[in-house]
Design a protein that fits this description.
Length: 362
């Protein structure tokens, strides 16, 4: 590609750079639920247009009520944002840490947010030879000396999951210290039993981030939330813009949280397709997929092709994968593949087999 992109889902930009009709691109670069949203989502959005001249509820009270029932927690432990990325920056601005801890590789906005307030960052490189698993005891020892710690569970882009036992150890290690732990659970929906939301509401130094743009498929509406103690939630609520969530996102969020069938069906189909895609990828020569707990798979290219070259070849077939070379700690030999519908996953597998078997040079 002409330049590396720092996030997936850049359909508009890819379309312009390569003169490809955007509606013809199947997007494997963005980790968003590919299955159709419930019909009543568009109905409530259309019905809300009559309120477009009004300011949205700055506290998102109705959506908070719905979330509180969904999570079985008090609304006082919830803060809403314009996507979870919005809350990352608001949390950093609220606390102004002088030092921070970030994994490598991981979601790039943690680093950007910390640098924006002049924080000195301590990076911990995850090892490929360990399948990018987190060495919790070593990390806890180092992280406990810093002001703010960002962890992603499951981690993006590696898909690795921190076990409940290891999370408990980490939480106890940080208990009573000035360190604030921000745990990003944007991709926890396929393994919700690993969430520490119920712990976060009882601790003053833990904030759990959740996204409604990924599993719930509301990426274009930008909606996320965080859960923590009343004190830390209030601090973040008072940081950032006064109207972070628009009226359409607020009503859509309420509706989709109440739809248990959509959630259960999506979870079942994503798990089924993830396992299918992983098995098929394991059989393709010159690539190595890594085990994952999320709705995406990190893949290493072991042949001569770079991630950018493979991405370009797949784009010729109308398929967009994520070039991971922009992730700190990953070379130009890694791509990330989102789990999509069966026919789309099968199409990607067929094209990958064709390209890697021929060893096409670009």
């Amino acid at each position: 590609m002409k330049r590396n992109m720092s996030h997936g889902g850049n359909i508009e930009e890819v379309s312009r750079l390569f003169s490809i009709e955007k509606n013809s691109i199947v997007d494997f670069s963005s980790n968003v639920n590919p299955f159709n949203l419930p019909n009543n989502i568009s109905d409530v959005i259309c019905a809300s247009i009559r309120n477009i001249s009004r300011y949205p509820d700055r506290n998102c009270e109705e959506l908070k009520e719905t979330l509180g029932k969904y999570l079985n927690i008090s609304t006082e432990n919830i803060v809403l944002g314009n996507g979870s990325a919005d809350i990352i920056y608001r949390a950093v601005y609220a606390h102004r840490p002088s030092s921070g801890f970030v994994l490598s590789p991981t979601f790039g906005e943690y680093e950007k947010a910390l640098l924006s307030v002049g924080a000195k960052i301590d990076y911990w490189e995850l090892k490929e030879c360990d399948d990018f698993k987190l060495p919790v005891k070593e990390v806890a020892d180092r992280a406990s000396k810093l002001d703010m710690v960002f962890l992603c569970n499951p981690n993006n882009p590696t898909g690795t999951l921190i076990s409940p036992k290891d999370l408990k150890y980490l939480v106890e290690k940080l208990c009573g210290r000035k360190t604030i732990l921000i745990l990003d659970e944007a991709f926890i929906d396929l393994t919700e039993e690993h969430s520490i939301i119920n712990i976060a509401v009882k601790r003053k130094n833990i904030l759990v981030l959740r996204s409604m743009t990924k599993f719930f498929g509301l990426a274009g509406l930008r909606l996320g939330y965080a859960v923590g103690s009343k004190e830390i939630v209030k601090q973040i609520q008072n940081s950032g813009q006064p109207w972070p969530v628009n009226i359409f996102a607020q009503v859509a969020g309420q509706i989709i949280l109440k739809n248990k069938k959509f959630k259960n069906d999506s979870r079942r189909k994503l798990l089924q397709e993830r396992d299918f895609l992983y098995r098929k990828l394991c059989r393709i020569k010159n690539i190595k997929p890594f085990p994952t707990a999320a709705n995406f798979i990190l893949v290493k290219i072991e042949g001569h092709l770079s991630a950018a070259q493979l991405q370009k070849q797949l784009l010729k077939c109308g398929l967009l994968v994520r070039d991971c070379s922009s992730f700190r700690g990953l070379s130009s030999k890694y791509i990330r593949i989102a789990v999509r519908k069966h026919e789309e996953n099968l199409r990607l597998i067929n094209e990958l087999e064709e390209i890697t078997s021929k060893g096409i040079k670009t």
